[in-house]
Design goal:
about 280 residues; 3 strands
């Protein structure tokens, strides 16, 4: 009985490894058949386990001899921003595949190819299974294709017009000016040390979405309608509740303000996307 249990436990990872090797071989053959350059990855860069573990493992992985290898750099999901054209230059081609056991990804820096892909969407459908985590509130324009995508696009497209684009542009400028003024503390030519610019950029996005999407105006500390103040970690502190930006009064059984609700959602978005709903409900 014990031997059967041990064999069963060992069979699971062995079966997984063999299946991954077979899938990788099949995907390599597919990439070879195109005649384009390709880079083999040990696993999919969008694998949920990898996305969660990467920040923890990265400080140790970068000490290994593989840190400068192209395949290792492509495991970073943000490589297009950090590496830019470097992988294409290394491969000597404007088009290449990244091949993993899960799937092949096609990467291009060729404007003519990009033009063809964007104009022939029926020939290049989205891999909707990759966007399943975005179905937080149900199917949407990002996670669908075909007739269902057309239905969603028809529903969401009216707000995307020149009038609203002007509103977003004007509000973005106003919020950016308010952020900088808050950084300066109302004084020209001097400012405190800013240690967490990312937090304020997140807040700037929240303010723009609030105004353009929901008609709720939010102000920065240090502006005419806000209060001066900075947190010790370098980013702007929220104004006191009694003196801060005015928000609609709570209605019904609501216990959070609009700002707190949207801010918490944005700050915890990663966990919402990667964890199953039954865990979140707990």
């Amino acid at each position: 009985m014990l031997a059967v249990l041990i064999y069963t436990i060992l069979a699971i990872p062995i079966s997984y490894i063999l299946h991954s090797c077979w899938c990788l071989y099949r995907n390599i053959q597919t990439a070879k058949s195109t005649g384009l350059a390709y880079v083999i990855l040990p696993w999919n860069s969008l694998n949920i386990i990898w996305l969660i573990a990467r920040p923890i493992l990265l400080p140790y992985l970068i000490r290994l001899p593989v840190r400068d290898r192209l395949w290792f750099r492509l495991l970073n999901v943000d490589w297009p921003w950090q590496e830019q054209y470097s992988p294409f230059q290394t491969l000597g081609s404007d088009n290449f595949f990244s091949v993993s056991p899960a799937r092949n990804y096609f990467h291009t820096a060729d404007a003519a190819v990009i033009d063809q892909i964007t104009k022939r969407r029926n020939d290049f459908p989205k891999p909707v299974e990759v966007y399943g985590s975005l179905d937080l509130y149900g199917k949407n324009v990002v996670s669908t294709e075909g007739p269902l995508w057309k239905h969603h696009r028809k529903t969401v497209s009216p707000p995307f017009n020149e009038k609203n684009n002007r509103l977003v542009w004007a509000e973005s400028l106003r919020q950016a000016q308010g952020m900088v003024k808050g950084w300066m503390g109302g004084r020209a030519g001097s400012s405190p040390d800013l240690l967490c610019v990312a937090a304020d950029c997140m807040k700037l996005s929240l303010h723009v979405i609030s105004c353009a999407g929901f008609g709720v105006n939010l102000e920065w500390p240090g502006t005419d309608d806000g209060q001066n103040g900075h947190l010790g970690n370098g980013h702007l502190s929220p104004p006191p509740a009694e003196k801060g930006p005015k928000e609609p009064l709570f209605k019904g059984d609501h216990q959070m303000s609009y700002t707190d609700a949207l801010s918490n959602l944005l700050h915890n978005m990663l966990w919402i996307l990667v964890l199953p709903m039954y865990l979140l409900s707990e």
